[in-house]
From TrEMBL:
The lineage of its organism: Bacteria, Pseudomonadati, Bacteroidota, Cytophagia, Cytophagales. Residues 1-241 form the GP-PDE domain. It comes from Sporocytophaga myxococcoides. GO terms for molecular function: phosphoric diester hydrolase activity. This is Glycerophosphoryl diester phosphodiesterase. It comes from the Bacteria. GO terms for biological process: lipid metabolic process. InterPro entries: GP_PDE_dom (IPR030395), PLC-like_Pdiesterase_TIM-brl (IPR017946).
Length: 241
């Protein structure tokens, strides 16, 4: 999977429709980062803040209206754009792609709008509505560390796979995913419990799947794919050079 749409450092600005198209062309799927505006539009964006613009203080997508976001885009002196999740879904459907999309939902944005249960519920509902509208049920994964969001996705019964983001202990993440009935783990490779053939076999016996991020070395990617056989690998090295 192409990390941030087309791989960080690729030929296109990350987390844009152009990056996503490039990622679709080069890999078996893409990973993109999502945030929700006050108008309930899902924008592709990774970072906590926008850049400062025209002397304005830093601001964030959560808490901003779509018009305010477009004003920010327009004030950039360099070529810059932001894309929406709906644009990616439209492209996927219009081109009849058989490619997976992993939606990385950030739950650590400390604003009055995003650091709330209602924000996570609204974001889950908006994703679910788009999945239904574009018949994307067989192509979408969500990854998040927030149980409110993942549980809401499950409750909406859209067929979206749910992955618990795990930054630390592999076994604790597996225990939580099993207890909650999630599809599997979104695992930061190189955590306290290095992935082995043995703990991957345990994961399989428990009926869980896994996506691993973010690998860069071609040799490492091929080695892990062969030895551990994860379901998904996210990388910026989309050309495996």
């Amino acid at each position: 999977m192409a990390h941030k749409g087309g791989g960080g450092g690729g030929p296109f600005q990350e987390n844009t429709i152009e990056a996503a198209i490039y990622g679709f062309e080069q890999t078996e799927g893409i990973e993109i980062d999502l945030q929700l505006s006050r108008n309930n539009t899902i924008w592709l964006f990774h970072d906590e803040f926008f850049y400062e613009c025209n002397g304005k203080d830093k601001s964030r997508i959560p808490g901003q209206t779509d018009n305010e976001i477009r004003t920010f885009i327009a004030c950039q002196t360099q070529p810059y754009k932001l894309s929406t999740l709906e644009e990616v879904f439209q492209y996927h459907r219009n081109h009849h792609l058989n490619k997976k999309i992993s939606l990385d939902v950030k739950s650590w944005l400390p604003t009055a709008y995003s650091n709330t249960t209602s924000y996570m519920v609204r974001l889950a509902d908006q994703i679910s509505d788009l999945v239904k509208a574009y018949s994307m049920q067989n192509y979408i994964l969500v990854e998040c560390e927030n149980a409110v969001f993942l549980n809401r996705i499950k409750k909406n019964r859209t067929g979206v796979e749910t992955y618990l983001t795990t930054f630390g202990d592999f076994y604790e993440g597996m225990r939580k995913a099993l207890k909650a009935g999630y599809t599997g783990l979104s695992y930061k490779y190189g955590g306290p419990n290095t992935l082995t053939v043995e703990n991957m076999e345990l994961l399989r016996r428990k009926g869980l799947k896994i996506e691993i991020w973010t690998l860069e070395s071609k040799d490492e990617i091929l080695k892990i794919a062969e030895e551990l056989k994860p379901d998904y690998i996210q990388t910026d090295n989309v050309l495996l050079q």
